[in-house]
Q: What sequence folds into this?
């Protein structure tokens, strides 16, 4: 293990960045100056920035630094896809305490680089600073979209169909599983967690993907959603965002919420309400979007997209229709200053 | 004092952002979506991102949250000016522990807003998350520059003149002063620190400005520097960056380094080497830049810019010429994982 102090800030920055090349034409200048220089000809520029904090967004007792780097990058990408854009550059800022070595930082950056390579994104900025208390990762993603194809949260219309990609709640159940195994294994050096048959839950929690494939599929079919948002804080929260910003209401059907069987099995084992996990779990990074009613047949035929309800007038409110037909008002999950799920 | 948990994440975000308007034509969509949407017609897009961490970059025992917000914003702007660009949008991400109230966050954002208003920058993103350990502020600034006027760190040429704006070392001496008064006053509730005659040092540390005026003045005189960098980590470090990235050497003269008399007085009182403070102090956020030798007379006549030396061939190395004529090789100040000055 190499102490960061032995290289110094500039030595470490070099070590982490000297091999990085850029390949997107929009990246005029990446790492190594006061700011990155980009050139987006005739396109809208998208910019999103997020923080990932140790103890809140990740726990290094069960996340490797490489996985953390991968997740930080894909979380940032998902914000750009949620605008119907394409991520092109990523800027990474880390605050790192003495606990971490040069090799730790290399592992974190290896994860970032792997994600960037996979998604065709250039690393255009690397900033390292010291921290007194653990690890902080700041990610800023820039991307592009055609001017008439940017999708906001605010353009959903009554009668629009509500669609969601993939399935929900698995990342949350993965977190519950990791937390349980951590609690069970505490103090037992020989303890080996039992994750057999639950790999999907772990993958969804530890190595989420951004839904590039969905954006490309929609573009291929010339579908431009009327509104879209990334599912970061849970389906209920995101539905409320769409409704509020579009000035509409919504109805979604419990029986239509896409849930993987591993999520269901795990919820059973934990004696947790499955719908609550899917509605409020968070960190799914799926895309929630609306399309005009006329696209009903088209959307229905697409694998990996589920119609879960429809937009209605604002006065009708935002409701989940339970399996027994009861209307349950949607509520954003509570948030306190130390209990933020995402 | 209002607990953040009583408003929740979305309530707090609303409280901090609902009054925010944007005014730059390049800001198509600011706060409230997955990403900001910008439109920079025929311009280069500049993006810079930085983290400010409690205990490393700021100490809330002597910085108010409003001042911190102001500083976070101007630090971000300074990176855009250092590319010869104009900052246009700012995205702010904060990680906040239970220790902080709604009013605290309002104070922080008031400082950010004040800086943005002063510099003509739109707030285009606000993200709040919880933190286990104090306050984390992430700032991302986007801006624009004409394509042929972006100034990199890498184009300094032998015989170019080295210029610096303002004066150096005052922010560092301000920090020393604050640290001393904190140590002296510890445990004494009735203690009133004595800052009379040292206001400039405090202002430089607590409320740094980005040098918009210098960039405008250079543009007004049609001067495009050959290279430029913001002085964040200290003059010596930044000179080494310019030299390395331009593949050149440099000579700067100790007697030419601009130093305010308050900085000099304070260094005397602290028995510190004044040149070391000015060369390595950091956080000055002045602009260090190079211009062709032919601009010698023009630059000499500009108030607030000092010629401190010249660029030479790489083989000659990077040196400070002391008052007694000795050549002292420049060295970047040491950096360890818990001793980062900026």
A:
């Amino acid at each position: 293990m190499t102490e960061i102090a032995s290289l110094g800030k500039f030595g470490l920055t070099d070590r982490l960045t000297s091999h990085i090349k850029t390949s997107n034409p929009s990246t005029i200048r990446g790492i190594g100056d006061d700011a990155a220089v980009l050139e987006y000809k005739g396109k809208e520029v998208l910019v999103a920035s997020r923080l990932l904090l140790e103890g809140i967004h990740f726990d290094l007792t069960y996340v490797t630094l490489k996985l953390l780097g991968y997740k930080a990058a894909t979380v940032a990408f998902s914000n750009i896809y949620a605008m119907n854009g394409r991520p092109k550059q990523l800027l990474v800022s880390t605050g790192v305490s003495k606990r971490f070595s040069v090799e730790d930082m290399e592992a974190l950056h290896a994860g970032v680089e792997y994600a960037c390579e996979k998604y065709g994104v250039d690393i255009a900025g690397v900033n390292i600073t010291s921290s007194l208390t653990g690890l902080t990762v700041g990610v800023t993603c820039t991307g592009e979209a055609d001017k008439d194809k940017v999708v906001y949260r605010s353009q959903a219309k009554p009668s629009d169909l509500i669609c969601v990609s993939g399935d929900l709640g698995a990342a949350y159940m993965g977190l519950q599983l990791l937390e349980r195994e951590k609690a069970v294994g505490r103090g037992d050096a020989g303890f080996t967690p039992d994750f057999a048959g639950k790999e999907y839950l772990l993958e969804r929690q530890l190595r989420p993907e951004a839904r590039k494939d969905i954006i490309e599929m929609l573009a291929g079919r010339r579908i431009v959603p009327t509104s879209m948002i990334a599912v970061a804080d849970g389906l209920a929260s995101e539905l409320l965002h769409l409704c509020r910003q579009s000035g509409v209401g919504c109805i979604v059907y419990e029986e239509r919420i896409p849930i993987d069987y591993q999520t269901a099995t795990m919820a059973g084992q934990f004696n947790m309400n499955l719908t609550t996990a899917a509605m409020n779990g968070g960190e799914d990074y799926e895309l929630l979007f609306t399309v005009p009613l006329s696209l009903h047949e088209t959307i229905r035929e697409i694998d990996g997209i589920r119609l879960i309800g429809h937009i209605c007038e604002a006065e009708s409110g935002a409701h989940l229709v339970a399996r027994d037909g009861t209307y349950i008002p949607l509520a954003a999950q509570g948030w306190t200053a130390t209990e933020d799920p995402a």
